[in-house]
Queue: 2 jobs
Job 1
Amino acid sequence: MRVPLSWLREYVDVPAEATPEDVLAALVRVGFEEEDVHRFELQGPIVVGEVIEFVEEPQSNGKTIRWCQVDVGEAHGGVRGIVCGARNFFVGDKVPVTLPGAVLPGPFPIAARKTYGHVSDGMIASAREVGLGEEHDGILRMVELGIDAPVGADAIALLGLDDAAVEINVTPDRGYALSIRGVAREYSHSTGAAFRDPADRPWDEVAPGSGFPISIDDQAPIRGRAGASEFVARVVRGVDPTKPTPAWMIARLTLAGIRPLGILIDITNYVMLELGQPIHGYDLDKLQGGIIVRRAQPGEKLETLDGKERRLDPEDLLITDDSGPIGLAGVMGGGTTEMSGTTRNVLIEAATFDTVSIARTARRHKLPSEASRRFERGVDPLVPFVAARRVADLMVEYAGGTSDDEFGGAVFAEVFVAGIELPPLFVPHLIGVDYTAGEIESALRLIGCEVVEAEDDAAGWHVIPPSWRPDLTDKWTLAEEVARIEGYDRIPSVLPLPPSGRGLTAAQQGRRRVANALAAAGYVETPSFGFTTEEQNDLHGSPSGAHLPSIKLANPLDGQAPFLRRSLIPGLLQVAHRNVSRGFTDLALFETGTVFLPKPGVAYGTPHVPPLAVRPDAATLAELDASIPPQHRHVAVLLAGNLVTKQPGIAPVAAELSDALDAVRTIAGAAGVMIEVAQGQRAALHPGRTGVLSVGGTEVGYIGELLPAVAEASDLPGRVVVAEVDLDLVLSLASEKVVAASLSGFPAATQDVSLVVPADVPASDVRSALADGAGELLESLRLVDDYRGQGVPEGAKSLTFALRFRASDRTLTAAEATEAKLGGVAVATERFGATLRE
C-alpha cells in the first residue's frame, strides 16, 4: 500500500517536519513492514509561465512548431523564447515551464539549446514529462486544472509534485490498511496523533431511495453465506467526462500507484484508496433494466474491461441487468456498461461481497485487481453508503454533475459482529508480559473495540471488534492486538528450556548416523525430486520389472514425470547424468529419501476433495489418510567411473561391485545390523552381478551392476553399480543401540581356513556357519578367495576365509585360536558338508 503523505495528513496530525522515513518508523512500530519511499523524480526550477505570443513555423520534415514568447516572471528572467511542438494552448494561457537547470523524470536535464533555428530557453511541459500520468498529446494548461496562480509561482507545489509516498507491506489479515483511512488510524495508534475518520460524513442526510431496482438472487452460496450482503447505488446525472482531473488528485493517485484514466474513473479510484471501499461506476444509459446480483449460469460469457472474453463458472458471482452479465462482482466490470468519454449519467456501485467468493473468482480467472485485493481481505460493511455519497459529491464538484438522490437504490442487511470473551489473565500469560487491566482495555478501545467489563472481575471482558476488523475473531487475535499496540519491544527475548530426556528419536538418530557414515566414506549426498515416469518405476521399483501400481499426481511439477517414485535409483541416475554431462565422470553418490509403495489391489486417491473453506470432519480426514500410500525411507548409493583416479605411478582403479558392498557394510555398521548378501535378480541389473540384501532372513534391499543398456539409456559411460536399502526396515530390525566397541590392549590371533563346499552354496551362508561355531573369541571374519578349478572336485568350490580372534582379558594362545576355528568348521560341515581343503 502506497500512502501519499499529503493525503495522510488530512486525516491524522503528521508533523510538518516529519520525513517519509519517520512515518515508516511509526508504522513499523505497530507491525507493518516498510517497503519503499516514492517521490516524483524531478527538481526545479519549474514555474508558472504565461504565453505572450507564438508564431507557427512549418518545418521541412512536415512538422509545425511554435516559437513562443513566455513570461516566467522577473525573478526568472522575464520573457523567454521557447520552442514547442504542441498545439493545444493559446495566447494568455498559463502553463508549467521547466527552466534550464531543471531535471525531469528519466532523468532528463533541461538546458538552453538550439533547435529548429532558435535557442529554446526552457521547455513547456506536458503531463507525462512532469510525471503526472501518460498524457503526452498536449501541454498542461493551468486553467484546465483549476489553478489560478501568478506568473513565476512554483509549479511543483501547485501541481502536487513536492509530495512523497511511503509504501508498506499489508498482510492478508489486515485488509483495512489498504486505505488511507486504515493507515491514518494506525499512525495515530503508533504516535498518539489526533485521527479524523474520513468515513465520518453526513451520508444519512440524503439516504438513497428505492427508485433504481436492485436485487440479490444468490442460489449457490459458499459456506452457507450469500455472495453479496449489501449493494448501494447512487445516480449522478449530467457529468462531463472530458473535465480534467485536479492536479492534486492526479499527483496522489500517481504516488499511490494508480494510473489516471479520466475524471470519472479517477474519482472512483480515489475514494477506494481513501476509504478502502472498492467502487464501480456504470454508464447509466447503457444499463438495461435493474441490477441483479446472481451466480453465473452454464455457458455464460463476459467481456471484462481488459477486453478479454471470459467463460464463466457457476460459482462466479455476477452483476447483471436485463441484457445478462455486466461485471464480475468485486473483481472487474464488463465492457458493455463501462464509463467512457460519452458518459453523461453515472450509476455508482458500493457493495459488500463475500471474501471467499471474490477470492475464488479472481484466482479462477487469473484476474487480480485492486478491488478483489480488498474484497478478499474483507471491507468495512458500514462504509458503502458513505463511499457512494463521497463519489457522488466529488463527481458533482469536479465533473459538473447533479446528484439524483431519489433515483438511487440499496439492498442491505443488519451488520452483526460477534462478541469475544477475554479472560483477565489470558493476554499476560499468552504474551509473557505483565499487562495491567487498564493497558489491555486501553489497547482494545484504541483499535476501535467495544469493551464491556464483566460483573465478576474474574470473568474478564466482553469485547466486540470494530466492523473494519474481520480478522479479530477470538481471544488469541485480541491478545496479538494488545501486544502490537503496547509495543513488541516489551516482549522479553527468552529462549525456552527444552524438557530433559527429549531429542531425536531412535529412528532419526539412525538415519543421521547412516548419512554421516556415508558422507565420511567419501559419498556425496544428492537429494532429488520424488517424481519419475511409470517406465522408471517398473524398471527400478520392482524385482522383476513387472508393472506395479504407482501413484499419479493430478498436478505434477513436470508433466513428463507425473508419478511418485518407487525407488531412489532413477533420481540418482538423473543426478549422475547431469554431472557426467558437465565433465564430472568419477561419481560416488548417495541419497536418503521417501519412496511410495502402494499395495496391489488398493485404490489410492480420494474420490471427493473437500472444499477449501470447509474444515473436513473426522470421516473425511480418515478417508484422506487412507488415500495416501505407504511411504518408506530408503537409502541408495551409486558408483561410476574411477574410485581411485590416475596419478603418477598409480593406475586408475574403477569402481566395482565390491565397492558398493563396502557402502552396504557402512550402512549396516551405522544402523547396528549385519546385512547378508545372496545371489538375486533385478530387471535393471546384470544377471550374475546382482545381490539380495537381507537382515536375519528379512529382505531389506538389493545391490548390483546396471545392465549396459540401462546405463547407456541414462547416457552414463562404463560400469555403474548401485545399491538400495529400506532404511526404515533396517533400523527397525536393529536389536540394540549402536555402541562403540572398546579397544582391547591384547594382540589378535589370525588364522585362515579353506573349505570345499558345493558350488551352489552361498558364501554368506558358509560365513554365517563359521561365525556361529567360532564363538565369542571371533572378532572378524572375511572372505578372501573363491576358487574353482584344478584340485577342486567338479561342482564344488573352495572358499578361503581370514579369521581374527581376540580376548579382552588375555593374550590368546595358538591352541585357543585353532580350537575356535575348528568349532566353526564343524558347524559348516554339519550344515553344508564342508571339508577342509588340503
Note: The chain has six domains: 2-40+164-191, 46-158, 203-412, 420-490, 506-733, 749-836.
Job 2
Amino acid sequence: MDSKTVFELRNEAKYLSGVEKLNKLTSALNISRQLYLEDSSDEWTQKALAWVLIDLCKHYIAVNNLNQAGTYYRELNAIDFQGYEDEIIENQKKNLRPKIDTNYSEIHKAEELSKNGKHQEALAICKNLISQNQLTELHHESYGWIIYRYIKAEKSNLSSVEVRTFLRDYMNLKNERPSMLHSMILNFALNYSKNHSDFKFYNFFLLWNPKNLRYEDLHDGTNQNGDNIPSLISRICKEFVNSNTELDIEEVLNNIGLDKETVIDFFRETIFWNIFNTHRENRFSDLWNLFEQYNNNYSKYGQSKWHSEILNLAERFMKENDDWRFLNFFKNWNPENLRTDDWKKTKKDENTYKPLATKAIKKTFEILKTQTSEQDLSWLIKPYETAIKLFPDDEWLLREKALLHFKNNELELAIKIYKQLVLELANKHYVWQEFSDCIVSDNSLKIGMLSKALRLEKNEDFLGDIHLNLAKVMIDENLLENALVELEAYKKHREIKGWKLSSIFDELHKKASSVKQSLKDNRELYKKYIPFAENFAYADFDWTEVVLADNWKDKKGKERLTFTNGETIEFSIGKNRFEVLKHSKLGQIFKFKLHKQEIKKEIENNFSWLSNNIITEYKYIPLIVNKTEKQYWEILNDTFAVVDYINKEKNMIHVITTDNKEVFFPQIKSELQIGDFITAKSYIKKVKDENRTELRNIQKISKDSVLSKFQTEIAIVDGVNEQKQLFHFVISSKLQGIVKYADTNLRPKEGDFIKLSYASKMGKDRKLRVKVLNIELTKEVNPNLRKDITGLLEVKYKNYNYDEEIPDFAFIGDYYVPKYLIEKHQIIDDCRVKATAIYAGDKWKVTEIEEI
C-alpha cells in the first residue's frame, strides 16, 4: 500500500454515496494514517492524509454532523507539513473552518484583538462563548494563544493567584500537545517562577508533562546573530538546581526524550558553576556543603564530562588544610566513573598537565599515607590497576599500589609487587624498607631487608626509622648487642641534628641495655642477613652463568667489569657493586640472577614518508651474584682459527675461524706467524650496532689437530699457468682461487679434481677470498664441476674470415671449445663429438674432445 492507493480509493468514492462512499473514505483514511505513522515527513503521504480528511470533513458537513467534522478538521490541522504547506490544501482548510465552526467569526475577531494587544477585549469574547457553552475544542488552540499573550503582557499587573488561574485554565484545554504554544506556556512558567517563590514550577512541569517537550525544546538553538540559545530543558534543569527544588530526578529522566547522561549533565553543569563561584567568593562553608550535596544526589548517575569537571574542582580546591576532604569526596564520587579522557594528559597554553585520574588517585594516596584507621581500600586499588596498565613505566604508581595493598592487609599482593619493584629500584633504600613491613613472620628475612636498606642509603637523615625498626626485630631475636648498635647510631645522629628522640626509643633502649656493649658496628651481621632478603626477593629468577670477559675504566676513572655468556647476554657493572667482585679476575666464572629489561627504541626511517621503526633491545640488570668453582673461561665456546695476516705496525693478529669469522687481537707474544693455528674461547661483543667475535685464552696448536675442523670441498683445476708457476681452482661461482707452485708439490693438469681444506673471508671488493690450508689430489668427483657431453661441434671464425685454415673456436651447444683443442684434433668442419666440459667459475669450457 502507498499514497497512490489512497488517491485511487478517493477517486472511487467520488462516484458513490452514503455508506458505500463513507466506507471507501474510511479505508483510505486507515491506509494514509498508517503511512503517516511510518514516515510523517513524506510529502505525498502528508497530502494523501490531508485530502482524505478534507473529503471526510465535507461528508460530515453535508449530513450536518459538525462534531465529527470538527474532529477530522483538528486532525487535518495537526499534519506537520514542515514549512511546505500545499496552497490548495490551505485554501480548503480556510473554506472548511467557517462551515464547521459556527463561531469562527467570533474567535477570529478575538485572535486579531489579541495579536494587536487588546487582550481584555479578546478575553471577553472568549468568556462570552464559554458562558454560552459555545467554545468548542476547535477553539482551544486559539484560546490558548490568547491566554498566553495576555499573561505575558500583563504579568507585572497580575497577582500570582491570577496568573496561576490562567495557567490552570490553559492546562484544562484540549489543544494540540506537544506544540509551540504548549512550549511557550512552559517557558513563561519557568521565567515567572524565578521571581515568585509561591509558584511551584516543578509541580507545574509535571502537570504540563515532560513528554510534551519538542525537539526544539531539547536542543540548543541560535539567534539571528548566530549566538547560541540554551535549550529550554537545560534552563529548566538549571532553575531546579538554583532554586534548590526537591524533585524526583528519576521521574524527570524517564519522561524526557534525551539520554540520561545529557539531562544529568544539565544539572551537573549548573552545580559546577555554583561551586566555582562559591569558591571565588571564599564562601568555604557553603563550598564544602555543595560538594557533599552533589555527591549525595548525582554520583550514582555514572560518568560524564561535568562529573569529571566537578572532580577537577575538588582536586584543585581541597588543598593544604582542607586536602583531607578529598579522600571521602573521591570515594563517594566513585572512581569507577573515571572516563577514558580522564586518563589522558591535557594541554593548555603550550603547557602539558597530568591526567585528572592520575592526580586524583595520587592525591588520595597522599592523604591515606597519613592515616592509620583501618578501611577497605579496594575502591582505590582498582583505578591504580588501570593507571599501571596505561603508564607501565611509572614505578611510583606500582609502589603506591603496593602500599595500598599493605594498608589493606593484603600482604601477599604487596609482596608480589615489591618483588617487581626491587628489579627496577634495587638500589633505593626505601623500597627495601617498605618491603620489610610486609614480612610479619620471618624475623631473619626482615632483618635482611632492613640491613639492605641501611647499606644502600648513606644519608643518615633518612635512616632513623630503619634503625629503630631493625633494633626492635633484633630484640625479638635476642640480638641485644646488635640492637644497641642501631639505637646508638639513631641517637647520635638525632643529637647532632638537634632532633627529638622518638618515644619508642626509650622503650627499646631499656630492653637492650641489659647487655654489655662491645660491638662497634653491625657490618658482619649485615653480610650474614642481607642474602636472606636478596634470595627471597629474587627467588623466581634462575641463575645464569657468565664469564668476566673484560675490565676497564669509565670517563670518571671508575673500574667497570664486563660479563658475558658468550652469545646473547652482555652487561657491565662497577667493580664495587658486589663484594664478591672486588677481587675478581678475567676469565672467572660467576653466576648471576639477572633482570631482563625490555627497551624500545624509535629509529628514524630513511624515507620521510614512512613512519619510524620501533626496535626492541634488552638490558640485563644484575640482582645478586655468587662465585662458581668452574675453570676460567670454561663456559665459553671453543673456537679454532688460522692466522691470516699480521699488522706489524699496530701489532695486531688477524685470524679466520672455522666458521669463517674474521677476528683480530693484539699480539701478546711474538710467537704467532701467518699460517699458524690457534684454539681459544670466544664470545660475542656488541660494538655499537655490530656483533664482533672476541677471543680469549688463546693458544697455539698443531695443524694436524685442527685441520679437520675447517671446511673441506672437492674443487676442480680449471687453468694452469706454467709461466707464472700457479694453477687456478673452482669450488663454486663464488669460491675460487689460485695455488702457487711454491706452496705445494702438486702439479695438476686442467680438469683434475683436488681436495681442499680452507677458510674464507670477504675482501675489500666484497668478494669471497679462499685461504687454502691443505691441498691434495683426489679421485673423488664433484659432478657440479665436470660433465661429459655429446653433440654437434660447430666451428667459428673471427670476423667471419673463412679463408683461415683453422677455425678460431667452436661451440658444442652452449659449451665453448678453445682453439688449441681444434688444432690438436685438426678439426676444420662441423662434426659430431664426445667431450668433457669443466666449470670455470662463470662459464663452462670444453677440455677434451673425440670425434664420432
Note: The mean pLDDT is 92.
